[in-house]
Amino acid sequence: MSKKTPQEIVIPKELLPKDGRFGCGPSKVRPEQLQALTTRGAKLLGTSHRQAPVKNLVGSVRDGLRSLFGLPADWDIVLGNGGSTVFWDVATFGLIANRSQHLVFGEFSSKFAEAAAAAPHLGDPEVISTPPGSHPVATTSDVDLYAYTHNETSTGVAMPLRRPANSGDAIVAVDATSAAGGIMWDPTEVDVYYFAPQKCFAADGGIWIAACSPKAVARIEEIHASKRWIPASLDLKIALDNSRSNQTYNTPAVGTLILFDEQVQWMNSNGGLQWCADRSATSASTMYEWAEARDFATPFVADPAMRSNVVSTIDLDGVDANEVCAALRANGVVDTDSYRKLGRNQIRVGMFPAIDPSDVAQLTRCIDYVVDNLTD
User: Fold this and answer.
1) How many CB atoms within 10 Å of residue 151?
2) Which pTM was predicted?
3) Which listed CATH number (3.40.50.150, 3.40.1350.10, 2.60.120.260, 3.90.1150.10) goes with 11-29+272-375?
């Protein structure tokens, strides 16, 4: 009898998750968010972002994030068009005064360092790197910005956020794209916490959001006063001024803002950031304990203290991860593929707050079933 192809494997219904979306971005969108597009969206889509209805929506997002993150009253929520990739360019113009230090431990943490290195008006950045699967630690240096990544989406590594000792006037800027809303953080250790909403916030991409401390705002205003040339669409001072009026410099995707606002309200109504973090931690515990109990699976991140609670990466041995993902996909369980540039035989699973922990448990049962059928 010939071995089944991945597409021929039929997973029993009792093993399947209720929702089979486990992508690491764009991530699962809750049905209630989609419903809001037809209810709230009926009055908001196709209207001016300079008028009260859309400005009130932006204000709701900003207020909701302040509450979710427990921010002091003097912090600003700033937003603009483009995702985190655009914000790296924004930061090279409007946050780095002269020189930055970058902690690099994967695909996305390297990109901000590359943007800073390419900027002709900045000094060469200091880069501290470790191999994928671990994270480096900042060292006190003669820089004016420390660039962290809270959660490296490509590798499933999360790092604690701690301000370097004796860092003086330097600011700490954190790429939180896949962490924001799913991992706890302390605003006293950070000055800029920036992200896009297509991960924990279960919205579409296309906007960036930055929670900014008074120290960060002072840096934005200092650079603006220096008369440095900055394209208007990348000017943080313009974005700051517009955000304080609950609007963006140019037209935003209102549908994304509706999805975003619905998710923030859902998070706050259920208990805030701690509830979200606990929910993701439950999923992570299920995923890592399952892998450690299997002969064919091993968590890619060897140090448990560095393992992410929102993105798990699991190496497979003795079975082709691509075939496992293909069999899952044929049964409606999708987006478990590893990050392409990492080049490992592994699966990658999103465990954002919108993903039910019980569905993560069902996913592990599905993988067991698939592996049994692929290796018989």
Assistant:
1) 30
2) 0.96
3) 3.90.1150.10
